[in-house]
Request: fold
Amino acid sequence: MYQIRRNQSAMQETLEELSDESENLIQKALKIAHEGGKVEPVAFDIDPTNVAIYSASDTYRDNVHEGTFGVDYDILQFISRVPVISAILQTRINQIAEFCVPQEDQFKAGYIIRLKDQSKKPSAEESKEIQDLTRWLETCGEGYRFGGAFNFEAFIKMILRDSLTYDQACFEIMKNRRGDIIGFVPVDASTIRRRALTEEEKKEGRRDWEASGYIQIINGKKVADFEHDQLAFCIRRPRTTYFAKGYGFPELEELVRVVTHLVNAETYNASNFVNGIHAPSILVLKSKMTPQTFRNFKRDLYAMLSGAAQAKRTPIVQLDPDATLKEDLQSVNIGGTAEEMGYTTWIGYLTKLACALFQIDPAELGFVFGTEGQTGALTQQGPGARIQASKDKGLYPLLRSIQNWINMFIISKVSDKYELRFVGLDLNTEKDVLAGDIQRVSNYMTVNEIRAKYDLKPIEGGDIVLSQAYITSLSMAQRAQQDQGQQDQGDQEDDEYNDQDEEQENDEPEQQGQQEQETEDNKEEIGKSTKHKFSIEI
Reply:
């Protein structure tokens, strides 16, 4: 009995502990729900030992790009102006600009506003909203009234150049007092920084990405403050490293050495046309001219031999004409050619490296080195195929990034039903589309299906695929059907003929009986007439 009571007491204590633990769990859940259900990761995304992070303030910031190893925004901008780099950036900007106007027809590049749910067909009201939103986007809302971008194409060009230079594109989202978006304007990305960490963020080891805002720095001082929903901070090449501190990874930082070599090579080659550089040869003259005459001769000769900007002036030396001294006139070459130093190969290699990092083929810039890309028996692809492959590799991902930025920060905030899509990526001409329809109607689509694609009425006999094999098979089936019909008709005629034969066979006994009866009757009549005749004669 004592043991039973002891077990009951232990069981009751266990139940009370479980009850208390459950109550604690319920209270925690209620607390989380009351706080909005906010759950954060455990991992740190900032370095707790980095003194620079903790010492950074919003009152003063230097001009260093905080996502690089000490490269400032001015250096990145200077690098972007090197001719090869500038050509790469401008090529991509011009290519993207083709998509920054509403698409006029299916054969042109552009953008469209459409429903996110593609299974639905827009109603008349939604179609009007799409048209209004398209017109609103063309002028950046009310943003065109505040300088900078006067239309959507100019806006994209501005933020795209910043993105390709700093891997950081910024634009301000303008709202009215009700909180509705009324427009957007581009902002110089080199002046935008993330706010300094709060004490709570330092303690947690993570930045509050939803609450954290941005500041604008000019000449090291803060001039503007933005909440996280007032400014778009767009990154193309995100990283997980805590060193990045939420900033981008500019290609130009990786190209610092390449660009330095490019500048040095161009400077070396250009120095051959600048005054003061060493002479390529020495002219030795054997003559009995007086010093005065020789100076006059040398002056006239210099006027004929000097290059542009007095470059490569040939030194002239007067020798004694005495034969015993064996002095003579000769040209001594003391300079090497650019080809001997591999100048062309070196410049080409550096250009290819720069293009590779920006995911663009040199052929898009007009550079085709040697026999590269030339179609031949062994190489089937020409420059056109290389350019298309380059666009697939570099242009289309760039378009997707811009498309996501516009949808995330602008379109979704105006209306969550719609989205922007760049179209015409694989642009086909009307001739290409017609050729494709001919292939479809010749293989698996009917004529009326193709006509329905262009909102045309169906035609009689149009439910057919214009395939020779299909037409032959259909003709054979129709011929077999006709043969079957003819055979059925012949069988019917044979049946009718057989029925007539049977009727004739059934009628023959009756006719034969009638004929026999008629014969007997005739015999009787003949016999009577004979007897009557015989009796008369007697």
